[in-house]
Amino acid sequence: AQDAPLLEVNNIEVIYNSVILVLKGVSLTVSKGGITALLGGNGAGKTTTLKAISNLVHSERGEVTKGSILYHGERVQDLAPSELVKRGVVQVMEGRHCFEHLTVEENLMTGAYTRRDGRGAVEADLDMVYTYFPRLKERRKSQAGYTSGGEQQMCAIGRALMSRPETILLDEPSMGLAPQLVEEIFGIVRSLNEEQGVSFLLAEQNTNVALRYAHRGYILEAGRVVMEGAAADLRENPDVKEFYLGVS
Ligand code: ATP
């Protein structure tokens, strides 16, 4: 249905190594066309939530032991990560993860490997990525390992875009970047959302920036959602101000 939620996470529990309970019943909804922020401090469970959605917890001896994850109303938690990419969900991992020895352009092209819609369409999308990230165009022949932190973050987002995703799970885009660059990257996320219709679920420790760009937010503490709401409301919430925005 048109107004059905895009992604629904219902009361999931995640356990690592069969003993460490990290998510203790997390529920959240990502609506189509929105930017949803997943907030919280170090170790709150943001990355684990994203990895549970994209089915990457297995590779770290983790398991979703309770709850369900639905995409367009269909259960996706048993799908291979590559199958999820085909359905339109792609994750940009924390720490950028570009292939250091490939050029920027080669990195971008690796994002298109699941596509079967021909060279012309892929090249058009490469142009689209360069329109949003002109810096990547300037650096396209450079080895990714020699580009700056900001350029590598852009490269990782650009590579995700090359799979033509409907939803991007973006982990900690601000990490290690100067404030001006953080604004630049969030500004591009907003443009991609508004102009290309890409929905985002982004995990961020930088509550201040995330709540300025997101439409909705969820705050995680020790594996539980402790607060949720419209970003504008969360920005004005006294507890959020005191504990997450550093003003009271
Ligand atoms: P950060 O911003 O540091 O990534 P986060 O909110 O994303 O924080 P997670 O990375 O999801 O938090 O970690 C949540 C908890 O799970 C932490 O206590 C962490 O130590 C633990 N954890 C994460 N990965 C594993 C793993 N592979 N095995 C065991 N415990 C893990």
Automatic annotation (TrEMBL):
Residue span(s) of domain ABC transporter: 7-247
Family matches, as Gene3D superfamilies: P-loop containing nucleotide triphosphate hydrolases
Keywords (A to Z) from UniProt: Amino-acid transport, ATP-binding, Nucleotide-binding, Transport
Molecular function terms from GO: ATP binding; ATP hydrolysis activity; branched-chain amino acid transmembrane transporter activity
Organism listed in the record: Palleronia caenipelagi
Family: Belongs to the ABC transporter superfamily.
Protein name per its UniProtKB record: ABC transporter ATP-binding protein
InterPro entries: AAA+_ATPase, ABC_transporter-like_ATP-bd, BCAA_Transport_ATP-bd_LivF, P-loop_NTPase
Entry-linked CDD domains: ABC_TM1139_LivF_branched (cd03224)
GO biological process per UniProt: L-amino acid transport
